[in-house]
Design a protein that fits this description.
Elements lengths: L21 H11 L2 H9 L6 H11 L7 E5 L5 H8 L3 E6 L9 E5 L7 H12 L6 E6 L9 H22 E12 L5 H10 E7 L10 E9 L1
Parallel strand pairs: 1-2, 1-4, 2-3, 4-5
Antiparallel strand pairs: 5-7, 6-7
């Protein structure tokens, strides 16, 4: 079982570089002093976000060998790596390019494109003996932030709703849906629908999520 990093090297200072903004300097300093970044490098994960799924799985025991998993907003590939290491068959999609991952089929495209759901279904069918259904749909998708809380919340919820609509189309009975949300979590209407469609719905903020971040994850278990 992976443990939450509890110690770090003495805080590293970031020298100011010509042309570097204050915000980018703060981001770099945070990265250099983040124990999860160091741990990801040591364990071969493509980013610290991998530990969010590791910690969710430690709590709920979701990932099982031979599961069909779809990862939306997959780049740089950390969640795909975690699922593949658990013996899952993984299909991932993102706007950004990703290097290959063992036991994973990756697509570089926008999930909002009309053809994206069909591309994912066809990939699942190819991998899974004609079965285009999934055991788990997980979405770490997030739009570029504007700095305006209400606007950012609406934009991320639009992505969550798109991911949820896709999950309802492809999930097997007793399947699971995971999605990143912000602020107060899933909105009331969506949460009410989830509670109709799934046996259990809960919100989790894994320890790997930075304390200052407003992100949390909604996990829906037991698709009806």
């Amino acid at each position: 079982m992976a443990k939450k990093p509890t110690s770090r090297d003495p805080a590293k200072r970031v020298k100011t570089a010509k042309g570097r903004t204050t915000s980018s300097t703060k981001w770099l300093k945070r990265q250099l002093n983040d124990p999860y970044v160091t741990k990801a490098q040591m364990e071969g994960y493509r980013g610290r976000a991998a530990f969010k799924l590791v910690e969710i799985n430690e709590k709920l025991d979701i990932l099982k060998p031979n599961m069909m998993v779809v990862d939306l907003g997959a780049a740089p590939g950390g969640w795909c790596q975690v699922a593949a290491q658990k013996g899952c068959k993984v299909v991932g999609l993102d706007l950004l390019p990703m290097d290959p991952i063992e036991n994973t089929t990756l697509f570089q495209m926008d999930f909002m494109d009309d053809e994206a759901p069909e591309v994912l279904k066809n990939a699942m069918a190819d991998i899974n003996d004609g079965d285009e259904r999934a055991d788990l749909v997980m979405s770490d998708m997030a739009p570029n932030t504007t700095g305006h809380k209400n606007t950012d919340h609406l934009r991320i919820m639009a992505l969550v709703e798109l991911a949820y609509h896709f999950a309802r189309e492809v999930l097997k009975p007793d399947g699971t849906f995971i999605a990143k949300v912000r602020q107060g979590g899933a909105e009331n209407d969506l949460l009410a629908q989830m509670k109709k469609d799934f046996k259990t719905v809960k919100h989790i903020k894994p320890p790997a999520s930075r304390p200052e971040s407003s992100e949390t994850y909604v996990i829906a278990l037991g698709f009806r």
